[in-house]
Protein backbone atom coordinates (compact mmCIF):
# COMPACT_ATOMS: atom_id res chain seq x y z
CA UNK A 1 0.00 0.00 0.00
CA UNK A 2 1.33 3.42 -0.96
CA UNK A 3 2.77 5.53 1.85
CA UNK A 4 0.93 8.87 2.02
CA UNK A 5 -1.44 8.34 -0.92
CA UNK A 6 -2.82 11.46 -2.62
CA UNK A 7 -5.96 13.10 -1.23
CA UNK A 8 -6.37 16.67 -2.56
CA UNK A 9 -8.93 18.66 -0.60
CA UNK A 10 -10.73 19.64 -3.81
CA UNK A 11 -11.31 15.95 -4.56
CA UNK A 12 -13.07 14.99 -1.34
CA UNK A 13 -14.21 18.29 0.19
CA UNK A 14 -17.92 17.30 0.25
CA UNK A 15 -17.21 13.95 1.92
CA UNK A 16 -14.86 15.63 4.38
CA UNK A 17 -17.45 18.24 5.35
CA UNK A 18 -20.07 15.56 5.97
CA UNK A 19 -17.70 13.26 7.84
CA UNK A 20 -16.40 16.13 9.95
CA UNK A 21 -19.93 16.77 11.23
CA UNK A 22 -20.57 13.05 11.81
CA UNK A 23 -17.43 12.96 13.95
CA UNK A 24 -18.31 16.13 15.83
CA UNK A 25 -21.67 14.66 16.80
CA UNK A 26 -20.09 11.43 18.09
CA UNK A 27 -17.28 13.41 19.69
CA UNK A 28 -19.79 15.44 21.69
CA UNK A 29 -21.27 12.19 22.99
CA UNK A 30 -17.77 11.15 24.02
CA UNK A 31 -17.34 14.53 25.74
CA UNK A 32 -20.23 13.92 28.14
CA UNK A 33 -19.84 10.15 28.54
CA UNK A 34 -16.17 10.01 29.58
CA UNK A 35 -14.19 11.11 32.61
CA UNK A 36 -12.48 14.42 31.97
CA UNK A 37 -8.71 14.34 31.43
CA UNK A 38 -6.18 17.15 31.47
CA UNK A 39 -5.97 19.19 28.24
CA UNK A 40 -9.16 17.48 26.97
CA UNK A 41 -7.33 14.18 26.32
CA UNK A 42 -10.54 12.27 27.02
CA UNK A 43 -12.25 13.81 23.99
CA UNK A 44 -10.35 12.86 20.76
CA UNK A 45 -10.69 9.73 18.65
CA UNK A 46 -8.01 7.04 18.46
CA UNK A 47 -7.07 5.02 15.38
CA UNK A 48 -8.08 1.36 14.98
CA UNK A 49 -7.38 -1.35 12.43
CA UNK A 50 -10.62 -0.47 10.63
CA UNK A 51 -11.23 3.20 11.38
CA UNK A 52 -11.46 5.36 14.49
CA UNK A 53 -12.93 4.79 17.95
CA UNK A 54 -14.21 6.77 20.90
CA UNK A 55 -12.65 4.09 23.16
CA UNK A 56 -14.81 2.64 25.98
CA UNK A 57 -16.94 5.17 27.83
CA UNK A 58 -19.94 5.22 30.15
CA UNK A 59 -20.06 3.62 33.62
CA UNK A 60 -19.11 6.82 35.49
CA UNK A 61 -22.23 8.53 34.11
CA UNK A 62 -24.57 5.60 34.96
CA UNK A 63 -24.59 4.19 31.41
CA UNK A 64 -23.41 0.73 30.43
CA UNK A 65 -19.84 0.70 29.11
CA UNK A 66 -20.01 1.31 25.36
CA UNK A 67 -17.99 2.40 22.34
CA UNK A 68 -18.81 4.10 19.07
CA UNK A 69 -16.57 3.19 16.15
CA UNK A 70 -16.36 4.43 12.57
CA UNK A 71 -15.55 1.47 10.33
CA UNK A 72 -14.00 2.83 7.14
CA UNK A 73 -13.52 -0.63 5.64
CA UNK A 74 -17.18 -1.72 5.63
CA UNK A 75 -18.33 1.91 6.01
CA UNK A 76 -20.50 1.44 9.06
CA UNK A 77 -21.02 3.21 12.35
CA UNK A 78 -20.82 0.56 15.07
CA UNK A 79 -22.28 1.19 18.52
CA UNK A 80 -21.31 -1.63 20.90
CA UNK A 81 -21.96 -2.36 24.58
CA UNK A 82 -19.67 -4.28 26.93
CA UNK A 83 -22.08 -7.24 27.09
CA UNK A 84 -21.39 -7.95 23.42
CA UNK A 85 -24.51 -6.44 21.91
CA UNK A 86 -24.03 -4.00 19.07
CA UNK A 87 -25.94 -2.07 16.46
CA UNK A 88 -24.51 -0.78 13.20
CA UNK A 89 -25.79 1.18 10.26
CA UNK A 90 -24.25 2.36 6.95
CA UNK A 91 -22.43 5.67 6.68
CA UNK A 92 -23.21 5.85 2.98
CA UNK A 93 -26.46 7.66 2.17
CA UNK A 94 -26.75 9.55 5.46
CA UNK A 95 -27.26 13.26 5.93
CA UNK A 96 -26.05 14.75 9.19
CA UNK A 97 -29.67 14.82 10.37
CA UNK A 98 -30.32 11.13 9.60
CA UNK A 99 -26.92 10.16 11.04
CA UNK A 100 -27.85 11.91 14.29
CA UNK A 101 -31.23 10.20 14.44
CA UNK A 102 -29.83 6.72 13.78
CA UNK A 103 -26.96 7.16 16.25
CA UNK A 104 -29.32 8.19 19.04
CA UNK A 105 -31.73 5.37 18.19
CA UNK A 106 -28.89 2.83 18.34
CA UNK A 107 -27.83 4.13 21.75
CA UNK A 108 -31.40 4.02 23.05
CA UNK A 109 -31.86 0.45 21.81
CA UNK A 110 -28.75 -0.55 23.77
CA UNK A 111 -30.06 1.08 26.95
CA UNK A 112 -27.69 4.03 26.73
CA UNK A 113 -28.78 7.59 27.46
CA UNK A 114 -26.45 10.07 25.73
CA UNK A 115 -26.47 13.83 25.93
CA UNK A 116 -25.22 16.01 23.10
CA UNK A 117 -24.20 19.36 24.59
CA UNK A 118 -24.56 22.24 22.17
CA UNK A 119 -26.05 20.00 19.43
CA UNK A 120 -24.60 21.93 16.52
CA UNK A 121 -21.18 22.04 14.83
CA UNK A 122 -18.27 23.57 16.72
CA UNK A 123 -16.29 26.31 14.95
CA UNK A 124 -17.68 25.53 11.50
CA UNK A 125 -19.50 27.92 9.14
CA UNK A 126 -22.91 26.45 10.03
CA UNK A 127 -22.36 26.47 13.79
CA UNK A 128 -25.80 28.01 14.35
CA UNK A 129 -27.62 25.09 12.69
CA UNK A 130 -28.48 22.06 14.87
CA UNK A 131 -27.32 18.66 13.60
CA UNK A 132 -30.98 17.64 13.53
CA UNK A 133 -31.69 20.16 10.75
CA UNK A 134 -28.66 19.54 8.56
CA UNK A 135 -29.80 17.74 5.43
CA UNK A 136 -27.31 19.67 3.28
CA UNK A 137 -24.23 17.64 4.22
CA UNK A 138 -24.99 14.17 2.89
CA UNK A 139 -22.01 13.19 0.72
CA UNK A 140 -20.05 10.06 1.60
CA UNK A 141 -17.61 8.64 -0.93
CA UNK A 142 -16.34 5.28 0.46
CA UNK A 143 -13.06 5.48 -1.46
CA UNK A 144 -12.26 8.90 -0.04
CA UNK A 145 -13.29 7.92 3.48
CA UNK A 146 -11.06 4.84 3.31
CA UNK A 147 -8.15 6.92 1.98
CA UNK A 148 -8.62 9.39 4.84
CA UNK A 149 -8.32 6.53 7.34
CA UNK A 150 -5.25 5.10 5.59
CA UNK A 151 -3.49 8.47 5.82
CA UNK A 152 -4.52 8.89 9.48
CA UNK A 153 -3.08 5.45 10.25
CA UNK A 154 0.21 6.14 8.47
CA UNK A 155 0.67 9.57 10.02
CA UNK A 156 -0.21 8.16 13.45
CA UNK A 157 2.71 5.74 13.26
CA UNK A 158 5.11 8.53 12.25
CA UNK A 159 3.86 10.56 15.21
CA UNK A 160 4.29 7.55 17.52
CA UNK A 161 7.89 7.21 16.37
CA UNK A 162 8.48 10.91 17.01
CA UNK A 163 6.76 10.66 20.40
CA UNK A 164 9.14 7.89 21.47
CA UNK A 165 12.05 10.34 21.47
CA UNK A 166 10.64 12.37 24.38
CA UNK A 167 10.47 11.26 28.03
CA UNK A 168 8.61 14.21 29.53
CA UNK A 169 4.86 14.71 29.79
CA UNK A 170 3.31 14.26 26.37
CA UNK A 171 -0.10 13.59 24.88
CA UNK A 172 -1.27 10.44 23.14
CA UNK A 173 -1.33 10.51 19.37
CA UNK A 174 -4.98 11.36 18.81
CA UNK A 175 -7.47 12.67 16.25
CA UNK A 176 -9.35 15.82 17.24
CA UNK A 177 -12.89 16.01 15.91
CA UNK A 178 -13.26 19.76 16.32
CA UNK A 179 -10.27 20.68 14.09
CA UNK A 180 -10.13 17.39 12.13
CA UNK A 181 -6.38 16.96 12.66
CA UNK A 182 -4.16 14.32 14.23
CA UNK A 183 -1.64 15.58 16.76
CA UNK A 184 0.96 14.87 19.43
CA UNK A 185 1.95 17.45 22.06
CA UNK A 186 5.03 17.79 24.30
CA UNK A 187 5.04 19.74 27.57
CA UNK A 188 7.85 21.59 29.33
CA UNK A 189 6.04 21.53 32.67
CA UNK A 190 5.85 25.31 32.97
CA UNK A 191 2.52 26.87 33.92
CA UNK A 192 1.02 29.43 31.51
CA UNK A 193 -1.21 32.18 32.89
CA UNK A 194 -3.95 32.77 30.32
CA UNK A 195 -5.65 36.17 29.95
CA UNK A 196 -9.02 36.35 31.77
CA UNK A 197 -10.97 36.58 28.50
CA UNK A 198 -9.54 33.31 27.15
CA UNK A 199 -12.27 30.75 26.41
CA UNK A 200 -12.52 27.56 28.46
CA UNK A 201 -11.39 25.23 25.65
CA UNK A 202 -8.21 27.21 25.03
CA UNK A 203 -7.50 27.75 28.74
CA UNK A 204 -7.41 24.01 29.40
CA UNK A 205 -5.60 23.10 26.19
CA UNK A 206 -2.79 25.60 26.79
CA UNK A 207 -2.55 25.83 30.59
CA UNK A 208 1.04 24.55 30.26
CA UNK A 209 3.82 25.43 27.83
CA UNK A 210 3.67 23.14 24.79
CA UNK A 211 5.20 22.25 21.47
CA UNK A 212 2.72 20.44 19.26
CA UNK A 213 3.12 18.61 15.95
CA UNK A 214 0.56 17.03 13.68
CA UNK A 215 -1.21 16.81 10.36
CA UNK A 216 -4.46 18.15 8.96
CA UNK A 217 -6.39 17.57 5.74
CA UNK A 218 -6.84 21.19 4.70
CA UNK A 219 -9.61 23.74 5.11
CA UNK A 220 -10.65 27.13 3.74
CA UNK A 221 -7.72 28.89 5.43
CA UNK A 222 -5.13 26.50 3.93
CA UNK A 223 -6.80 24.45 1.18
CA UNK A 224 -4.47 21.44 1.05
CA UNK A 225 -3.21 18.77 3.45
CA UNK A 226 -0.06 19.59 5.44
CA UNK A 227 2.16 18.55 8.32
CA UNK A 228 2.52 21.25 10.98
CA UNK A 229 4.23 22.26 14.23
CA UNK A 230 3.84 25.19 16.63
CA UNK A 231 4.73 26.35 20.13
CA UNK A 232 2.36 27.89 22.67
CA UNK A 233 3.17 30.36 23.97
CA UNK A 234 5.40 31.15 21.01
CA UNK A 235 8.94 32.20 21.99
CA UNK A 236 10.23 35.43 20.44
CA UNK A 237 12.05 35.00 17.16
CA UNK A 238 10.82 31.49 16.47
CA UNK A 239 9.92 32.32 12.87
CA UNK A 240 13.59 33.13 12.14
CA UNK A 241 14.79 29.62 13.07
CA UNK A 242 15.69 27.29 10.18
CA UNK A 243 13.59 24.15 9.74
CA UNK A 244 13.95 21.16 7.43
CA UNK A 245 13.46 20.27 4.63
CA UNK A 246 13.99 23.41 2.58
CA UNK A 247 10.37 23.20 1.36
CA UNK A 248 9.11 23.75 4.93
CA UNK A 249 8.40 27.28 6.11
CA UNK A 250 7.02 29.36 8.95
CA UNK A 251 3.68 30.98 8.13
CA UNK A 252 1.69 33.56 10.12
CA UNK A 253 -1.22 32.03 12.05
CA UNK A 254 -3.53 33.67 14.60
CA UNK A 255 -0.95 36.20 15.69
CA UNK A 256 1.84 33.61 15.83
CA UNK A 257 3.58 31.28 13.43
CA UNK A 258 3.07 27.73 12.22
CA UNK A 259 5.76 25.50 10.75
CA UNK A 260 4.28 23.94 7.60
CA UNK A 261 5.36 21.16 5.28
CA UNK A 262 2.91 20.57 2.45
CA UNK A 263 1.74 16.96 2.18
CA UNK A 264 2.52 16.87 -1.54
CA UNK A 265 6.05 18.17 -0.92
CA UNK A 266 6.65 15.39 1.62
CA UNK A 267 5.23 12.80 -0.77
CA UNK A 268 7.73 13.83 -3.45
CA UNK A 269 10.74 12.71 -1.36
CA UNK A 270 12.27 9.26 -1.83
CA UNK A 271 11.72 8.62 1.90
CA UNK A 272 8.64 10.63 2.94
CA UNK A 273 8.51 9.10 6.41
CA UNK A 274 12.05 10.19 7.32
CA UNK A 275 11.38 13.59 5.78
CA UNK A 276 8.36 14.16 8.02
CA UNK A 277 10.24 12.95 11.10
CA UNK A 278 13.06 15.35 10.29
CA UNK A 279 10.55 18.18 9.83
CA UNK A 280 9.00 17.50 13.24
CA UNK A 281 12.40 17.19 14.90
CA UNK A 282 13.74 20.42 13.40
CA UNK A 283 10.61 22.37 14.38
CA UNK A 284 10.69 20.93 17.90
CA UNK A 285 14.36 21.81 18.36
CA UNK A 286 13.81 25.30 16.99
CA UNK A 287 10.97 25.98 19.44
CA UNK A 288 12.54 24.18 22.42
CA UNK A 289 15.82 26.02 21.95
CA UNK A 290 14.12 29.42 21.75
CA UNK A 291 11.98 28.61 24.81
CA UNK A 292 15.01 27.26 26.70
CA UNK A 293 13.71 23.76 27.34
CA UNK A 294 16.13 21.25 28.83
CA UNK A 295 16.17 19.08 25.71
CA UNK A 296 18.85 16.75 27.02
CA UNK A 297 16.78 15.90 30.11
CA UNK A 298 13.81 15.00 27.91
CA UNK A 299 15.79 12.84 25.45
CA UNK A 300 14.49 9.30 25.04
CA UNK A 301 16.17 7.65 22.01
CA UNK A 302 13.96 4.88 20.60
CA UNK A 303 11.73 5.22 23.66
CA UNK A 304 14.54 4.30 26.08
CA UNK A 305 15.22 6.44 29.16
CA UNK A 306 17.91 4.29 30.85
CA UNK A 307 21.21 5.24 29.21
CA UNK A 308 22.61 1.74 29.80
CA UNK A 309 19.88 0.39 27.56
CA UNK A 310 20.40 2.86 24.71
CA UNK A 311 21.31 0.82 21.65
CA UNK A 312 19.32 -2.18 22.92
CA UNK A 313 15.87 -0.95 21.96
CA UNK A 314 14.87 -4.12 20.14
From TrEMBL:
Pfam families: DUF5996. This is Ava_C0101 and related proteins. It comes from Streptomyces bathyalis.
